[in-house]
Amino acid sequence: MSSLEMIEAAAGRLKGHARRTPLLDSPFLDELAGRRVLVKPECLQHTGSFKFRGAWSAISALDPDTRKRGVIAYSSGNHAQGVALAASKHGIASVIVMPSDAPQLKIDNTRALGAEVVLYDRATESREEIGAALAAERGLTLIKPYDEPLVIAGQGTVGLEIAEQAKELGIEKADVLVPCGGGGLTSGIALALEGHAPGLRARPCEPEGFDDTKRSLLSGRIVSNTETSGNICDAILTPQPGEITFPILKRLCGPGLSVSEGEALQAMALAFLRLKIVIEPGGAVALASALFRRDEIEGDTVIVVASGGNVDPELFAGALKHIP
Amino acid sequence: MSSLEMIEAAAGRLKGHARRTPLLDSPFLDELAGRRVLVKPECLQHTGSFKFRGAWSAISALDPDTRKRGVIAYSSGNHAQGVALAASKHGIASVIVMPSDAPQLKIDNTRALGAEVVLYDRATESREEIGAALAAERGLTLIKPYDEPLVIAGQGTVGLEIAEQAKELGIEKADVLVPCGGGGLTSGIALALEGHAPGLRARPCEPEGFDDTKRSLLSGRIVSNTETSGNICDAILTPQPGEITFPILKRLCGPGLSVSEGEALQAMALAFLRLKIVIEPGGAVALASALFRRDEIEGDTVIVVASGGNVDPELFAGALKHIP
Question: Which ranges carry the Tryptophan synthase beta chain-like PALP domain (chains A, B) (predicted)?
Fold first, then answer.
């Protein structure tokens, strides 16, 4: 099965389970960006981020005997919640391995979505060892966050929807800006656009100082960030592009873009004010790129993915002071 | 033409112009409400509220010669922005008469959406006289905010969508909670449901102390609020139900519900946290009713309209401290 066929098959499995998010716009954002801006609010997806799509895609594709033994994931963030809900909607168990110093709210939310949360001590324990032991003991299947073809296929359904929605609007050519961590969402979208909207080009967006994908694309090989923490865009601070995702990004994507924390906060504030959606810092880097990197973007329309909205109330309230 | 046919005709005129908003949900809200809660986020509509629908419905129905002379409205709020954008998308002029002490941001926004804003002094001038003089001089058509059949028909398209979406989900019976000011949205939805989903029942929701519609329904005749200001739910503080809307509400709606300001703020915070949408206080009273008046609601599913999201950043940041 080709990558595109895998995405189409994932779309079939997601039908009636994932939300088809709309495209939003505002004349005020168009004015700021100097071109038409269309925003795909994946913050409105189940569990507040696109991650539900990949999790559902992977879990729904397991053979029934394997699936009924349950799944496991390592994550303290959006992937954890996506896996927990997708598993519980399939009626199966999920185990999420999280650091014991993760915010209590995230632990509580993941449990409330039906997962068993197993905590480990970051300083003295290895989550991989704990996870491998649990998986072996119970026959759990590991759901990786991005470097997994079925997860990429699920995230690619965002790209299928963008291709359809752009066609309805008569848009044949545009940059599609995507918040990029390990590259699962960006590579999935790029594959879907290659097949269904070849005039649309995916471009990864990252925080400045954590622009491993942008630099990897420039150098033609995987390069890493020197830091993996210390930026408010926590959802997309992966050390480097994935081994499966990077070749896809390299073949299909336009140059990467990067923005400052302040620009991400301004984009969050503008999305609040003009679109009435809640986006988290990592989910705001593509909108920030559209608004504040206009000279690096081509065409009279830009499509932006707002990938998630799981942000602490205090941080969000602070962002609202950044309305330009 | 029957009321239902007017709504269906309005839906035809709105197609491709208004957004078809989705139905959102969250297991966390279901848990709080003790039943399934489905939220229709009209805050995601153009200009951040359902008012765009009624404005577009009325303007698009004018005969071309009348329309090209332009329209006028009295409003400092959501209706103003809806009329301004609907007029400018029709390529016609709009005049919005606003009090000179309206917040500068609202004046600026209305102008930016293409309207000519005419300011008047609340203490010494009558907006009706100013408006009538301008209308006569320029041949402008007045677009009323709610007591106008074409406006009610436009708002009724929310009800058509709810009927369709409920059917897709297999929901045959439910209360539909609607934030209610003058009653344009509630009566339009009630008429649409009567025709297309007779098992769904519209119910008006209001702030405590400004529950003129709830009391009017109880007494069977129009009664007024003693105050028309002094509550954060500014978008729905009308003095009394409309003369056209009230007979519709009386014939079709279930009993009204009312909530406190604190409950509206909590509902805003929960919509932020669980649905990733921005709703204003007046737009949150239906969700607040679903969450905090569970004993007054019937059935295992409740549908809630979140009617608008035009809220000042400071007020919104304050609401986020109300997460229960």
Answer: 16-308
User: What is the C-alpha to C-alpha distance for residues B239 and B229, in angstroms, rounded to an integer?
Assistant: 9
pLDDT in the model for residue A197: 98
B117: closest CA among B75, B67, B70?
B75
Is B118 in a helix, a strand, or coil?
strand
CB < 8 Å to B49, chain A: none
Q: Splitting chain A (324 residues) into consecutive groups of 10 residues, what average pLDDT does each group show?
A: 97 97 97 98 97 98 97 91 97 94 85 94 88 93 96 98 97 98 97 98 97 98 90 91 97 98 98 98 98 97 97 95 82
Residues of A in contact with B279 (CB under 8 A): 276
CA angle centred on B304, ends A307 and B212, rounded to 5°: 135
Same domain, A194 and A95: no
pLDDT value for A165: 98
Q: Does A138 share its domain with A17?
A: no
Any CB–CB contact under 8 A between B84 and chain A? no
Encoding tokens for residue A273? Answer: 């004010």
Q: Could you say which of A19, A85, A273 has the minimum Cβ distance to residue B22? A: A19
> How many residues does this entry show for chain A?
324
Q: Environment class of residue A30 by beta-carbon count within 10 Å: exposed (0-12), middle (13-18) or buried (19+)?
A: middle
Q: Residue B20: its chain A contacts at CB < 8 A?
A: 22
Among A141, A153, A226, A227, which Cα is nearest to A184's?
A: A153
Under a CB-based contact definition with an 8 Å cutoff, are residues B252 and B178 in contact? Answer: no
Question: A68: how many CB neighbours lie within 10 A of its CB?
Answer: 13
Which residues have C-beta within 8 Å of that of residue A172, sequence separation ≥ 6? A166, A197, A199
In this structure, the answer to whether residues A24 and A46 fall within a common structural domain is yes
Which residues in chain A are closer than 8 Å to B313, comparing Cβ atoms? 269, 272-273, 320-321, 323
**What is the span of the domain harbouring residue A223?**
3-50+148-322
Q: Are residues B86 and B37 part of one domain? A: no
For the beta carbon of residue A165, count every other beta carbon within 10 angstroms.
18
Q: What is the pLDDT of residues B161-202, one digit of tens each?
A: 999 999 999 999 999 999 999 999 999 999 999 999 999 999
Cross-chain CB nearest to B317 (options A44, A278, A317): A317
**Min Cα–Cα distance to chain B from A22, Å:** 8
User: Could you tell me if A233 and A178 lie in one domain?
Assistant: yes
A221: Cα separation from own chain's centroid? 22
User: How many CB atoms within 10 Å of residue A209?
Assistant: 16
Angle at B20 between CA B14 and CA B26, to 5 degrees: 160
A244 and A104 in a single domain? The answer is no
For position A193, what pLDDT does the model report? 98
Is the same domain home to A106 and A190?
no
User: Residue A144 has which token pair?
Assistant: 């990786």
